[in-house]
Amino acid sequence: MEFHEKLMELRKEKGWSQEELGNRLNVTRQTVSKWELAQTTPEMDKLLELSRLFEISLDELLNNPLFADRAQNSSTAVRNRFSVCPYHYEYKSKKTLWGIPLVHINLMRGGICTARGIIAVGDIGIGVVAVGGLSIGLVAVGGFGIGLLALAGIAAGFLAVGGIAAGVIAIGGVAFGIYALGASAVGSYAVGAAAKGDRVAVGMAARGTIAIGEEVNGAVTFSTDNPIDPVELERVIMERFPQTSRIFLGILKKWVAR
After folding, report:
1. How many C-beta neighbours within 10 Å does residue 246 have?
2. HEC readout, 14-30
3. What is the pLDDT of residues 203-238, one digit of tens each?
4. How many CB atoms within 10 Å of residue 29?
5. 152 sits in which H/E element
6. Are 124 and 114 in contact (CB under 8 A)?
7. Is 122 within 8 Å of 107 (Cβ atoms)?
8. How many CB atoms lie within 10 A of CB 154?
9. What pLDDT sits at residue 208?
């Protein structure tokens, strides 16, 4: 890859326009355009700034063949040394959105690779849809996930589902959230085998301002040992907590009326 091609690739990976890169280097957009069209080449001081800006060596920026040979030899040595890492697979789509690859897959056995893309799959995945041991995105799936929707062993997000889940709506073995559902649930509204709710708790063992279940502890309690009037339950909850979700109330009323 020639210098002008490398420069264009690095700029697009950052999501910068020619004008933005020019501003960072104190040159005009036309100057950057001429560099990328191979019409001119930057002076040494600008090459050094580019190297610093993109965090790569001058050898790599200029595609020095000696650097390529050293990098290949180093890569071979690493593979020979770490026989537990027999493969490294990476795919990055040529199509981008705001300078970000639509799809980036970066995986290595026995190693840690980061994928960044609209759809990102890697040991660490960062993207709109992210899959990885550690995933960060609007939709995050993995061992540890952070996102608007997180599905993971340990999940954190607006809607979090996992072994351990924390979010506005949390569903998991252990759940923490405004609305928490799990074997052990802690939240404003908690439902679980063991539930602790600041407002409403529902479970075999329930503790909250309003507690509903077999073993109940709260300011107002409803024991499932006796029939519970859904209308009365709704009245009590809405009287104390009028902002309670109607969806939650509907599900709760159906459950006590079963």
Report:
1. 9
2. HCCCHHHHHHHHCCCHH
3. 899 999 999 998 999 999 999 888 889 999 999 999
4. 14
5. strand 114-217
6. yes
7. yes
8. 19
9. 92
CA distance 248 to 188: 12
Q: What is the pLDDT of residues 152-198, one digit of tens each?
A: 889 998 999 989 999 999 998 999 999 999 899 999 999 999 999 99
Q: In the chain, how many H helices and how many E strands?
A: 8, 6
CB 167 within 8 A of CB 177: yes
Query: Average of pLDDT values for 54-83?
Result: 57
Phi-psi category of 98—alpha, beta or left, where left has phi over 0 and alpha has psi -120 to 50?
left
Residue 51 three-state SS: helix
Distances (CA, A) of 165 to 100, 140, 199, 209: 29, 13, 19, 23
